[in-house]
Write a structure and sequence with these properties.
With 314 residues, the protein is α/β, with parallel strands linked by helices. Helix content is 37%, strand content 24%. It has one domain: UDP-N-acetylmuramoyl-L-alanine:D-glutamate ligase (3-Layer(aba) Sandwich).
Length: 314
């Protein structure tokens, strides 16, 4: 089995408060509280771990919250090797009230500096000496103050060792990262519109946008479309994946679950269409659960045969 390395450069302690009749400007007492290691790369790690993959998680943490972060990872049996810095790992708060549509979120910004950047690049090079690592998933934003081209450096180091690099970030960080030729990027439609600065009205528009990003350097482009499924654009093929009608409870973390499923299948040397199918199945399963960034194997095994993958010929 090929090992998968996940990278979370802006991790967090995710705090989830369940409050009834939440009101601004008043004292609100929580009925339930949940604290977990958070960050997009951690969601990816959790999915791969549940699927039975060989996973190692890395990134940058620091301070008291960083120690709590590692404790939570260890409790979830996720192998890890993080760089510890002097900067406190951020805390992100989600307030859930069953009487209010949506989730109220309060998100801190994580911090770093160029010394932290250089230290992590050295750590990454050391980790990459493990020849069993064949796939890397880097997810989420960068800490403020670190090298804005950090992902480019990591992708270039990985490509030299013929390690497949999956990049799931957004905005200028994604645009820059594409130039380093990652194996796969995973924007959603809105992120794709943002980085290309134009509206994508039709499926053909979206496919052509994916092709444009391949011309810019990405080897493969997976575009998630919410309830409409997803598209996978490669250098010579286009696939569309759809899922059956299901009861959606929480879509947060579904994109990360999609990446986790795709990466796990890739570590099993499956075809790109098979990786795509498992990715969509994991993303759909996550959306059917209350908890963020996780899957239930019974639900996954029921959903997987119902995922339809078709090749599109333009």
């Amino acid at each position: 089995m090929n090992k998968i390395l996940t990278i979370t450069l802006n991790p967090a302690i995710d705090v989830r408060y369940s409050i009834e009749n939440f009101t601004l400007g008043n004292v609100n007492r929580t009925k339930e509280i949940e604290k977990n290691a958070g960050g997009k790369g951690i969601n990816v790690s959790r999915i791969i771990n549940i699927l039975g993959g060989d996973i190692l998680a890395t990134g940058i943490i620091g301070g008291f919250t960083g120690k709590l972060f590692l404790k939570k990872l260890n409790e979830n049996s996720i192998k890890n090797d993080f760089l510890e810095s002097e900067y406190e790992t951020r805390t992100c708060i989600a307030i859930v009230d069953k009487n209010i549509d949506g989730i109220t979120e309060i998100l801190e910004s994580g911090k770093g500096d160029l010394e932290v950047s250089n230290n992590f690049k050295e750590k990454f090079s050391e980790i990459l000496q493990d020849d069993s690592i064949k796939i890397i998933c880097a997810s989420g934003s960068l800490l403020k103050g670190i090298d804005p081209l950090m992902y480019n450096t990591l992708i270039e180091k990985s490509n030299k060792k013929r390690v497949k690099f999956i990049l799931d970030t957004s905005g200028e960080t994604l645009l820059a990262g594409i130039e380093a030729k990652p194996f796969l990027i995973k924007p959603n439609k809105e992120e794709l519109e943002f980085i290309l600065n134009r509206k994508l009205e039709t499926e053909v528009d979206i496919i052509n946008a994916g092709k444009e990003l391949i011309c810019r350097g990405a080897q493969n482009v997976m575009i998630t479309l919410g309830g409409s499924g997803a598209l996978l654009v490669t250098a010579d093929r286009i696939y569309k994946g759809t899922f059956p009608k299901v009861t959606i409870k929480n879509t947060v973390g579904s994109g990360d679950s999609t990446v986790g499923g795709f990466a796990y299948a890739l570590s099993q040397d499956r075809t790109l269409s098979e990786c795509f199918k498992l990715g969509i199945a994991c993303g759909t399963t996550n959306a059917m659960l209350d908890t963020t960034g996780t899957i239930d194997m019974d639900i996954l095994n029921d959903i997987l045969p119902k995922i339809k993958i078709e090749e599109i010929i333009l």
